[in-house]
Each structure stands twice: as structure tokens, then as C-alpha cells.
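User: Please fill in residues for this 251-position structure.
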């Protein structure tokens, strides 16, 4: 089974996150898909900037101290991503890239405002990339995944699960998720929990037997890679595709 390598924010370890440059780099690096964050400007244009959920502070991403909900798309076009000359991308830029390269994309809505998800779905339909698109968010925001499938039943959905004690299959079935992502930052608490219970390995197999893909991330070390492969994980969410590919080859 080929392990998929999925570029987090376009592969933020290789190029400025959430930019066309990062998507092009992910493609050149041979990534199997790429992810990006979407939020809305004052005039309801979907743009690609990482923000905290339901927040409009874009200073860390762009250096701009004005909240996004007070900026129009015309004003946002004057901004660049921090420490680079890369402009802020529009959702249409990413979906056009997906269509032209037939590269799967994963969209994380950064708010649950009534306008955002319908706008995303409308643009995905417009570019005719429903079959290449997955809506992604943390399981605690699972209502967004349910709403996405209600708006467009052919959309795939990916849920990031952070509780190793959860019933993985029950959680996936409750929202008809196509993918479950075992999510952690720095310390792999799924590995720690599995050391004592062995339930994570069993639950991963249960998901796969029921047609739910299982991915993990963020994968940053060779140790993370080895654990994921040992436990049958099918996809790895990474910031640096070539580095993690080298880890895979060594394993």
C-alpha cells in the first residue's frame, strides 16, 4: 500500500504557507494532495490565510494589524505573507490550481459563520472539482462536515480526531466521514496511549475495514513516520514532503 504524503498548508516547511508558491512546491515535491485554510474578508471574499478559528487576527500570517473582517479583498491584495513577497491567495486561485493539475485539495474553513461554507461549496462546484475536494476540520467542529455534505453530498470530509480514547469508528459513522486523521502536535499521544492499551492499532483497522481512510499528523520526525506505518496509517500530513519521503524510504 502506497503511503500518501499530504502537504499541510501547501507544505509550509518548503514555501510560504497557503500560497500558490507552496501549492506549486507541493506539486513539484510529489505530494498526493495539499491543504489550505479559508476565511472571509469584509466583503465576503474567501481568502487563504491561517487564523485561529472564528478569529480575524491576521498579523502573524501577514504582518497586518488590521483584522480581516475590516479589510476588503482589494485591500487584502496589497498584503503579502510574512517573511516573503508572496501575495495572499484567493480561494479561486487554489481551486483553479486543483483543476489544472488534478491535484486533490483539502479545505479547512476557519469559521462557522453562515456565509463561509456555502461560498466554499459554490466555488468548488464552479471549478468542477468536487471530486478532488475534501472539507477538513477538527472533530469538535463536526457540524461543519455534516453541513458540507448537506450542501454537496459528493464532497468528501476529513475529521481530525485528537482523543485517543474515543471510539474511532462510531465517531466517523456519526458524521459519515471519509477520512479520520489522528491529530497531534509535537508529542504523539496516540502512540503513548497505544503503548498501554493497544486499542489504537485495532481501531485503525476497524476504520479501514469499514471503508474509512486513516491518516496522521502532523508528522515531523522519523519516529512519527515509523509509528504511523507500523500501525497501518495510510496518509501522513507533513510540512516537508521530501524529508518525510526520505524517512519512508529508510524505513
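Assistant: Residues filled in for all 251 positions:
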Amino acid at each position: 500500500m502506497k503511503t500518501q504524503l499530504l502537504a499541510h498548508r501547501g507544505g509550509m516547511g518548503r514555501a510560504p504557507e497557503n500560497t500558490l508558491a507552496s501549492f506549486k512546491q507541493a506539486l513539484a515535491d510529489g505530494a498526493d494532495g495539499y491543504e489550505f485554510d479559508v476565511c472571509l474578508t469584509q466583503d465576503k471574499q474567501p481568502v487563504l490565510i491561517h487564523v485561529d478559528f472564528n478569529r480575524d487576527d491576521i498579523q502573524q500570517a501577514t504582518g497586518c494589524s488590521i483584522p480581516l473582517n475590516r479589510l476588503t479583498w482589494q485591500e487584502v491584495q496589497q498584503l503579502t505573507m510574512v517573511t516573503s513577497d508572496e501575495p495572499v491567495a484567493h480561494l479561486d486561485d487554489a481551486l483553479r490550481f486543483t483543476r489544472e493539475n488534478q491535484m486533490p485539495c483539502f479545505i479547512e474553513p476557519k469559521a462557522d459563520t453562515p456565509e463561509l461554507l456555502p461560498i466554499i461549496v459554490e466555488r468548488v462546484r464552479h471549478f468542477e472539482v468536487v471530486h478532488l475536494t475534501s472539507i477538513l476540520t477538527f472533530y469538535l467542529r463536526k457540524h461543519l462536515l455534516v453541513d458540507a455534505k448537506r450542501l454537496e453530498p459528493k464532497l468528501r470530509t476529513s475529521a481530525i480526531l485528537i482523543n485517543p480514547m474515543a471510539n474511532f469508528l462510531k465517531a466517523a459513522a456519526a458524521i459519515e466521514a471519509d477520512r479520520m486523521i489522528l491529530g497531534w502536535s509535537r508529542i504523539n499521544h496516540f502512540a503513548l496511549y497505544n503503548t498501554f492499551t493497544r486499542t489504537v492499532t485495532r481501531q485503525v483497522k476497524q476504520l479501514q475495514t469499514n471503508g474509512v481512510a486513516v491518516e496522521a499528523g502532523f508528522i515531523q520526525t522519523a519516529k512519527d513516520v515509523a509509528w504511523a506505518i507500523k500501525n497501518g496509517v495510510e496518509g501522513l500530513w507533513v510540512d516537508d514532503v521530501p524529508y518525510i519521503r526520505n524517512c519512508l524510504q529508510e524505513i
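For context: Strands lie at 4-7, 33-40, 46-48, 89-90, 105-109, 133-138, 156-161, 179-183, 213-219, 235-238.
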